[in-house]
């Protein structure tokens, strides 16, 4: 299963690429599909920032993401990494007091904000001190109109960067460069280019149960943890989500949580509901999750059970995550090291997944040996952990039974 996005490059006055605008697509057809702006932005958030590793975006120095009014005032921009994303206020947004409060809050938290294709009158004056980039649509406004706006609002635009978009000719580029624009976007420089990537598929029934539980009057965090542990995609996404929230709230880039339980309690009810809104409502699908998801869940439960029964008694929660995320590199076709650096996991989980060593790795190694029918090595490693081969088989059986009890997506 793939996600699709069109990337249009943004250039400086010397024709150097300084960023990209992400444009939602639902196939390799390079046009905006017949969906609402809210759906398109939510899909961009989920597929490009929560469900796909940022390692795919290393070449970006800045990423422009369009936000319609409703998603802005709901706080959805806060779920993205503020050091990478420029929040672009969509042209359909109205300059209401509620939106102004939202923009002030984003600015105070360190987000960069762009104003796109807006009316050149006075209705946005109160916003201008908090705007970092203004995008002028050169197909809508004439050079004279844009120049008059820049000169007339100079007292409000002292630190503002100007971007000319939809530039199609050398003459237009020269015109707006002389006017003071230092960023440029348009077909003269680069047309949008579609990229596809593997994406995680959520279990539809688990997703719906999570939506229901999170939106009760008093959500049961234990039930929420149990639901998250039944779905690889949701577990990965909430860890990415938590890392963004921690970074935006506290400026901590390398936050490491010990378990899904820790993340749930850290986020709290309101953030969990926002996670569900942005992730779950846009991701319900009828695609059957594949064998690799099923195997990952078996591994997760086995590692959890094995840790709990082992003579060393390491963290069962951490052992579960080791098994659950053990095949992310195969799913995304990316190095494990690039993946685990972008999720909230403990040092021991990191060591097991990235370096294949440490106190938790033997549990994963044991089930991998079992899957490959390496019986002598199963016996030897099991003995070191305090198991005989029959006990390993019983734990595998219990893990498989637990996994098989999870409702599957229908085809």
Itemize the secondary structure elements and their pairings.
Layout: E1 2-12, E2 17-25, H1 37-50, E3 63-67, H2 69-73, E4 85-89, H3 97-108, E5 112-116, E6 133-137, H4 143-152, E7 161-165, H5 170-179, E8 183-185, E9 193-198, H6 204-214, H7 221-229, H8 232-250, H9 260-280, H10 291-309, H11 316-324, H12 328-332, H13 336-340, H14 347-355, H15 361-371, H16 375-385, H17 389-404
Parallel strand pairs: 2-3, 3-4, 4-5, 5-6, 6-7, 7-8
Antiparallel strand pairs: 1-2, 1-8, 1-9
Task: Describe the protein's architecture and organization.
This protein is of the alpha/beta class. The protein has three domains: 2-197, Alpha-Beta Barrel (TIM Barrel), CATH 3.20.20; 200-280, no CATH class; 291-337 and 344-404, no CATH class. Helices cover 48% and strands 13% of the residues. The protein contains 17 helices and nine strands. An eight-stranded mixed beta barrel has the order 1-2-3-4-5-6-7-8. α10 (291-309) packs antiparallel against α11, α11 (316-324) runs parallel beside α14 and α15 packs antiparallel against α16 (375-385). The longest helix is centred in the middle third of the chain and has 21 residues, at 260-280.
């Amino acid at each position: 299963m793939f996600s699709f996005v069109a990337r249009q490059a943004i250039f400086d006055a010397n024709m150097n690429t300084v960023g990209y605008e992400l444009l939602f697509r639902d196939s390799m057809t390079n046009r905006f599909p017949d969906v609402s702006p809210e759906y398109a932005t939510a899909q961009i958030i989920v597929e490009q920032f929560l469900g796909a590793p940022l390692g795919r975006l290393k070449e970006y120095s800045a990423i422009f993401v369009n936000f319609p009014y409703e998603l802005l005032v709901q706080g959805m921009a806060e779920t993205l990494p503020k050091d990478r994303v420029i929040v672009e206020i969509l042209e359909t947004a109205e300059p209401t007091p509620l939106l102004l409060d939202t923009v002030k809050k984003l600015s105070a938290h360190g987000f960069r904000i762009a104003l796109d294709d807006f009316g050149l009158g006075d209705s946005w004056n109160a916003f201008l001190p908090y705007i970092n980039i203004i995008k002028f649509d050169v197909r809508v406004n004439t050079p004279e109109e844009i120049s008059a706006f820049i000169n007339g609002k100079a007292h409000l635009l002292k630190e503002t960067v100007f971007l000319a978009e939809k530039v199609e000719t050398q003459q237009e580029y020269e015109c707006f460069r002389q006017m003071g624009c230092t960023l440029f976007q348009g077909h003269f420089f680069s047309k949008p280019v579609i990229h596809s990537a593997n994406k995680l598929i959520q279990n539809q029934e688990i997703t719906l149960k999570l939506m229901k539980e999170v939106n009760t009057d008093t959500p049961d965090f234990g039930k929420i943890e149990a639901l998250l542990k039944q779905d690889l995609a949701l577990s990965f996404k909430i860890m990415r989500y938590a890392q963004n929230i921690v970074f935006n709230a506290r400026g901590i880039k390398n936050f490491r949580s010990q378990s899904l339980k820790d993340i749930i309690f850290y986020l709290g009810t309101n953030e969990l509901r926002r996670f569900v809104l942005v992730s779950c409502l846009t991701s319900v699908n009828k695609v059957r999750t594949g064998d690799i998801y099923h195997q990952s869940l078996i591994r997760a439960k086995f590692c959890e059970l094995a840790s709990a029964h082992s003579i060393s008694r390491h963290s069962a929660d951490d052992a579960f995550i080791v098994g659950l995320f053990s095949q992310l590199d195969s799913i995304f076709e990316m190095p494990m090291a690039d993946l685990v650096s972008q999720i909230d996991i403990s040092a021991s989980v990191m060591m097991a997944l990235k370096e294949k060593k440490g106190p938790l790795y033997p549990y994963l190694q044991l089930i991998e040996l079992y899957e490959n029918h390496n019986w002598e090595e199963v016996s030897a490693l099991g003995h070191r952990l305090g198991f005989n081969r029959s006990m390993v088989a019983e734990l595998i059986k219990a893990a498989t039974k637990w996994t098989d009890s999870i409702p599957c997506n229908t085809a």
